[in-house]
Amino acid sequence: MPIIVNLDVMMAKRKMSLNELSEKVGLTLSNLSILKTGKAKAIRFSTLEGICEVLDCQPADILEFVSEKK
Q1: CA 23, chain centre distance (Å)
Q2: Could you give the CA distance from residue 55 to residue 61 in angstroms, rounded to a whole number?
Q3: Which of 62, 58, 24 is nearest to 43 (CA)?
Q4: Average pLDDT, the chain
Q5: Which of 62, 44, 43, 42 is nearest to 52 (CA)?
Q6: Which letter does DSSP use for residue 3 in this model?
Q7: Against a cut of 0.85, is the pTM above it?
Q8: What is the per-residue pLDDT for 69?
Q9: For a pLDDT cut of 90, what percent of the chain falls above it?
């Protein structure tokens, strides 16, 4: 998949656990885990906004596009 989720990288930079992020954003642990592992097919803007607010980052810090063309 050409969209890479770097949520784990941002969480490590902010020294925040998945449990802590889950509580602060108001999402279930399982939903955040799906996003963190890159298994999510979509993300709501409100969810992305909440994550960015808590982690004090930009959407581009979490989501990255990598072209499959070579």
Answers
A1: 14
A2: 10
A3: 62
A4: 94
A5: 62
A6: E
A7: yes
A8: 80
A9: 90
